């Protein structure tokens, strides 16, 4: 059988590895974060409904109608008009009637700007889960990395999303404070996470991407990247101060330690595991070096 190629999102979270991938927008409407090279060179646009229908026909051939999860790209689909998104969600479910989860990336500022009724409409139309990049909750660091939002906005937007009935993932970017600001980064991040209590806290570790502002800052000596040991201590500081009910996940290849569990009940066990690993790294220069080397070799 010949299956039509279609325009799938170039990026998706690891948790969507088996999902139908559908592009409703292309690129990032912000595209200014100092660490991110994901959509550089892609002009942001909302796709036409006809293109989306065509892609859905091809996707249905490829995945089969029994698919149970679908991921919408690119980086901030919720920036599109609500009426349009509701229509798209209807078309999606016609092509895939067995879907149990429809997920999208979005930005904290986009959520903060949306009113709760609009978010409820999207939820009722079938969108179930949102992935949002918090990166850090430290206000100065948010400015430095040009995230384009404040801790207050991300708390406001995230809380609205939860109130509207979405499952919410917040992403934390370990190491983005470097050697100099890791404690501020951890403490600010904890403040936001505790205020929001997202369903999922997903850890990522900063990897300098050539062509980005952070990469340039490192080359020019302005930013001192955090060592693996600093990142592990930062992870510990975050974890020990969390007082929220969330699934704490380390579901990415960029992380130095694999620490996962439910908060609050698994916290002590996770801290013990992490302490054990920190002790091993502290006492083994070889292990430290291998962590550094492995991290350098990751290409995103
Ligand atoms: S991190 Fe997200 S919001 Fe920032 S530029 Fe990249 S895709 Fe856009």
How would you describe the overall organization of this protein?
With 300 residues, the protein is an alpha/beta fold. The chain has helices spanning 49-63, 82-95, 108-113, 116-124, 139-144, 151-163, 178-196, 213-219, 228-241, 267-283, 285-297; strands spanning 20-23, 25-26, 45-46, 69-73, 101-106, 129-135, 167-174, 200-205, 247-249, 261-262. The strands form 2 sheets. It has an 8-stranded mixed sheet. It has a two-stranded antiparallel sheet with strand order 2-3. α7 packs parallel to α9 (228-241) and α10 packs across α11. The model has no long low-confidence stretch (mean pLDDT 95). It binds iron/sulfur cluster. The site of iron/sulfur cluster has 11 residues, from loops.
Give short descriptive properties of this protein.
300 residues, alpha/beta, Transcription Regulator spoIIAA, two-stranded antiparallel sheet, 11 helices, 10 strands, globular, binds iron/sulfur cluster
Report the β-strand fraction as a percent range.
Answer: 15-25%
Bound heterogens, unique: iron/sulfur cluster
Secondary-structure element order, N to C: EEEHEHEHHEHHEHEHHEEHH
Largest sheet: 8 strands, mixed
Helix content: 40-55%
Q: What is the count of β-strands?
A: 10
CATH topology of the largest domain: Transcription Regulator spoIIAA
Would you tell me the structural class of the helices and strands? alpha/beta
């Amino acid at each position: 059988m010949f299956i039509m190629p279609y325009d799938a999102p170039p990026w998706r979270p690891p948790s969507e590895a088996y999902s139908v991938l559908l592009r409703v927008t292309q690129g990032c409407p912000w595209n200014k974060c100092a660490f991110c090279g994901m959509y550089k060179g892609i002009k942001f646009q909302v796709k036409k409904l006809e293109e989306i229908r065509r892609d859905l026909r091809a996707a249905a051939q490829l995945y089969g109608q029994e698919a149970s999860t679908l991921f919408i790209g690119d980086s901030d689909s919720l920036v599109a008009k609500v009426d349009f998104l509701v229509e798209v969600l209807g078309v999606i479910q016609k092509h895939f009637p067995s879907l149990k989860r429809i997920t999208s990336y979005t930005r904290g500022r986009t959520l903060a700007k949306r009113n709760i009724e609009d978010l409820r409409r999207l939820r009722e139309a079938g969108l179930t889960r949102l992935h949002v990049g918090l990166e850090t909750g430290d206000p100065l660091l948010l400015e430095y990395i040009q995230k384009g939002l404040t801790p207050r906005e991300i708390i406001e937007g995230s809380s609205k999303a939860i109130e509207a009935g979405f499952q919410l993932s917040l992403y934390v970017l370990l190491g983005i404070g470097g050697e100099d600001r890791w404690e501020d980064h951890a403490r600010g991040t904890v403040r936001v996470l505790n205020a929001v209590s997202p369903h999922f806290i997903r850890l990522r570790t900063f990897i300098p991407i050539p062509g980005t502002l952070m990469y340039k800052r490192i080359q020019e000596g302005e930013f001192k990247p955090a060592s693996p040991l600093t990142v592990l201590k930062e992870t510990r500081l975050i974890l020990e101060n969390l007082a929220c009910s969330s699934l704490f996940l380390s579901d990415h290849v960029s992380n130095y330690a694999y620490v996962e569990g439910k908060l609050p009940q698994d916290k002590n066990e996770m801290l013990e595991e992490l302490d054990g690993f920190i002790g091993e790294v502290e006492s083994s220069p070889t292990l430290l070096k291998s962590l550094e080397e492995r991290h350098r070799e990751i290409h995103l």
